[in-house]
Structure formats: structure tokens, C-alpha cells
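Troubleshooting log. The previous run stalled partway through. Resubmitting the same three chains, unchanged.
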Amino acid sequence: MVCDYELAEIVCQDCGIVIRSNMMDQGPEWRAFDSEQRERRARTGAPLTYTIHDKGLTTLIDWHNRDISGKGFEPGQKAQVYRLRKWHRRIRIFDAQERNLAHALSELSKIAETLNIPRNVLETASMVYRKAIKQKLIRGRSIRGMAAAAIYIACRQCKFTRTLEEVAEASGLSKKEVGRRYRFLVKELNYFIPPCTPRQYALRLIAQLAMEGEAEEIAQRILELASELRLTSGRGPAGVAAAATYIASVLTGERKTQREIAELARVTEVTIRNRYKSLIEHLNFTVYL
DNA sequence: AAGACGAAAGTGGTTGA
DNA sequence: TCAACAACTTTCGTCTT
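Second attempt completed without errors. Output:
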């Protein structure tokens, strides 16, 4: 029995049967490497009451250099009020960022929950978001959009297969919007995101279809050969993976319909057909029989 | 009757002038 | 900014199991 953290599944290594899927990572929630991190994490834990910030009781130190009776300040007081104002301003910015972060963390965990994303990926997403806040990339953009993008980045970095479409759906945003935010963040934060491989998609598909271990092997082999023959470049990885999975299902005898696979892979049957046509054209399947 | 096939037109995003 | 373009989708009629 093996625990696959990428797919969040427990799989029997002999027969490939999925014993438990969509499980949660039960590892420690937060890790803190120094006191500063511990402090920050402690403050951001637990149920977030981001809707209650200051309840409208914000204090303002206005810019008139006058006291309550309208008289001007003594020189010493003037300097003091200036300092007060300065610090007040700083604290307010800090507040705003904290509030944004709190809101964002709640969005992040909401999205993560509907996508069954394990803790470590969620943690990565939070780190991405913090970085974005620090670099002032959030201001003027929607928190939810940026949160969705952070989630997607984290998924890609952790090799946890979730499509852009799924992330968009879970966040209630359009694919286009999440994609735009995603590209923006990747560019601004100088991330390198390795492209998604058909292999990752295929692994997930086979797990979702609860197929035998043999099918997984065959699909992997097909994709290996396909990439050697350059049949994968320029093609959508999901389509290639779906085709390989379909072929594997036919070869192992536990046949799945194109529609079934197409639905899970989020491509059409036609795409599966087109891909697998070019696959069987170039590959010699006697190897497996 | 369901699944598979494939032609043809349509779609949305990228690229390059 | 616009048109060409490639990958993919939609639609639909036909063939196969």
C-alpha cells in the first residue's frame, strides 16, 4: 500500500485499487523555522473574522495643526503631532495589508477545500500570496482572483494536478480571468513553472477511473514513446493523456468509453479520437500483447 | 441502442505585421 | 489593431458492436 501525496490517494501497490481518495494531508498544519514566522503564522491561524475589522471606529488624526479649541500648536507639540501622524499612517497600512491577507487566506482555504487540495499545497499558495502582497501586486486587483491564481501556481509547483478550469470553477471566476492573474503573478514574482506533462494528467485520470496498475504502466509507456516521437509537442497535454488512458483501457480489457474519459479529462471525444489516431499510427502495440 | 468515427464549421487565444 | 493561425470544440450524420 502506498500513499500518494500528489494525488491525495491511498493506493494498493499490488492491484492498483484506490483505497481512499481525496484524503486530507494529516501532517502538521504549519511549520515555523524561526520566531518571526511563528509569530506571523500564529496571528493568521484559526477562524478568520475578516468581515469584522474595525467596525467603522477608525480614528483619524487630521492635517490641521490645531487643537480642539482651534488654536495652533506650540512648536514642540507640532513635532509630536507630526510623529503621531506618521506612525498612525504606517499602522493603518499595516492594518490594510493584514486585513487583505486575512480575507485572502479565507478565500484560499475555501478554494482549496472545494478542490480537495492537501495542506502543503495550500501552504504554498499562502506563501505565494504573501509574496504578492509584499510586492504590492494585489492592490487594485480582486482578492479572489489573485487567490485563485496563487492556488493554481501552488498546484503547478507542487505537481498537484488540478486544471486551470477546475480552479476557475472552484473560485467562481472565469478561466480567462484566473489565467490572466496567473500569468501576471508568474511574471511579476519571477516564478519558473515547469509545463504540465501528459503523464501527470494520465496518472490522475487512471486513479479517477479506478483502473488497474497494469493500465497505468501501459499509459505511462505510451506517453513515454509518444514524447520520444514528438507526438506530444504542441498538443494539449490533457488530450494526449486522455488518449493514452483510452488506449490503455482498451488494451487491458477494462474498457472505458471515450465519453467517460473525455468528461474527466475535460476534453471532447473528438480530441481523444484525433490524439489516439495519431498515437496508434506511430506506435507498435504488439509490444504489449 | 449505445458507442465510435470523422467531416466541417465554429471558438478563443496567440502571434506577428 | 487586425488578420492569420493552430489547437480544440461543437455539431451532426454514418458506421460498428
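Takeaways: Confidence is low (pLDDT under 50) at residues 11-58 of chain A. Residues 234-236, 239, 267-268, 270-271, 274 of chain A lie near DNA strand C (CB under 10 Å from a C1').
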